[in-house]
Amino acid sequence: MATIYDIARTAEVSHATVSMALRGIGKIKPETRERILTIAREVGYRPNSNAVALKSGTSRMITMLHMEHPYS
């Protein structure tokens, strides 16, 4: 699986620039942003769901606890 570091190496930019381009923030030249997005599509980049959950503070997961009934 490709990471933002792989994309940064291919695009010859920093991983911070890749991160901003993928999130659509920051002052990045349109041609640089498009080059990064094209590379990301080509390598099949998908954001790491664990990293996204850590950054946002939410995981969107439900935990279920199953215990044996004490009288069965």
In short, what is this structure?
With 72 residues, the chain is mainly α. The chain is built from 4 helices and no strands.
Structure description:
The protein has 72 residues and is an all-alpha fold. The protein is 54% helix and 0% strand. It is built from four helices and no strands. The longest helix has 14 residues, at 30-43. It is elongated.
Radius of gyration: 19 Å
- Specify the biggest β-sheet: none
Structural class: mainly alpha
Unreliable stretches covering 5 or more consecutive residues: none
First-residue to last-residue Cα separation: 47 Å
Topology record:
Layout: H1 4-11, H2 15-23, H3 30-43, H4 49-56
Q: Which descriptors would you attach to this protein?
A:
mainly alpha, 72 residues, 54% helix, elongated, single chain
